[in-house]
Specification:
Length: 168
């Protein structure tokens, strides 16, 4: 069987990176905008941040922490995309790597709650935890990616086995 073309490697690389980037963007939007606004209804984001800063926390550091988390996922996806386009890894490996970044995104979603969300809860005297609906979408996406990893591996191994038996 012929090796995948550069075009197919590029499609997988771009698609994987776009999905991870969308996940990271939703993570950042949820942690930095949607969740704080849902946690303190009736207040603007500027008012929420001002109260966080007034109690001695630093909302700018919280924002930076969330952006570093999201950016790490995008950087990893970019690295795996370059490896896929160059042919350094087999196509299924590139797919599994992108899926693994998405699966590990659940940890980033959890960690992002310790930045601004925790400070918002402390500053406004409200219960901690997530208040917006986007968190469920992120966790669900991570779960689907985790389930997809062994499926991709099994399909790849089965295809390799069939090709090997046909050539023998």
């Amino acid at each position: 069987m012929a090796a995948p073309s550069r075009a197919s490697r590029s499609v997988v690389a771009i698609a994987g990176t776009l999905v991870v980037t969308a996940y990271a963007a939703l993570l950042a939007l949820d942690a930095l905008v949607l969740d704080p606004l849902a946690a303190v209804p009736g207040r603007t984001l500027a008012q929420v941040h001002a109260q966080v800063d007034a109690v001695g926390a630093d909302s700018r550091l919280d924002v930076a922490g969330v952006l570093v988390l999201a950016g790490t996922g995008v950087a990893l996806a970019g690295f795996f995309a370059v490896a896929a386009v160059r042919g350094s890894v087999r196509l299924p490996v590139a797919v599994v790597c992108h899926l693994a970044v998405l699966a590990c995104g659940a940890g980033a979603v959890f960690q992002s709650g310790f930045f601004l969300a925790m400070d918002v809860a402390d500053a406004h005297g409200i219960p901690g935890g997530r208040h917006g609906p986007s968190t469920g979408v992120l966790y669900g996406t991570s779960l689907l990616a985790l389930v997809a990893i062994p499926v991709v591996v099994a399909v790849t191994l089965l295809g390799d086995l069939v090709r090997h038996r046909r050539s023998a």
